[in-house]
Amino acid sequence: MTAPLRWQLATVRSITTETERTKTFTLTLPAWVMQQPGQHYDVRLTAPDGYQAQRSYSIASGPERRGEIDLTVERISDGEVSPYLHDVLAVGDQLEVRGPIGGYFVWTENLGGPLLLIGGGSGVVPLMSMIRHRIAVGSQVRTRLLLSARTISDIIYRPQLEELSRKQRGIDVIFTLTRQTPAGWSGYRRRIDDPMLREVLAPLGDASRIYVCGPTLLVEAAANSLVRLGLPADQIRTERFGPSGT
What is the model's pTM? Predict the structure, then answer.
């Protein structure tokens, strides 16, 4: 068995509330392996009677952070793992994990760009890892992130993303809200569609590398729109979350 597929006990170093339903868990790993941006870890819980539940969560941190990872997890009310993480897990506790896992939905600086990242809800998590990697290595790849959320309070990492958009040259962050917008909102206010993608893609051009992550319906709609706009399918990488958000 290769090292990334061995289960190990990670220790919770910190827990950060991102939104009402989302928290980031910083885990220190005794057998840390450098990940590629876009990969995930499996988390396994074992009950006293031996019953086990396992879910996969994308890595939010960049690979340049050694010895630890961030997993950002949305609380799913009827889930088997996320309610425990949100309601029970505390700093200092241990958690059984294995990873990093995945090789298709990854981006590293050497792949180049321009880079268009499209996310819905917690689909922003692996995209954030890509952005953090880009910044850490000093890449100049032109990058645009289009992020869809129901309301402004549902935007994961909003303060960090707004700061990146202001301060990081070559990174643009565009939000679209699908249910409710605050007074004075100047961003998009609808689901992702062809005209929106045409506008967001225009500064990057048709040679862009594109990564789309989120709920299945959003991912399929965005990918189909991009193909209608003339983008080759082999330039579009997708990662779908099931109904449970995993």
Answer: 0.93
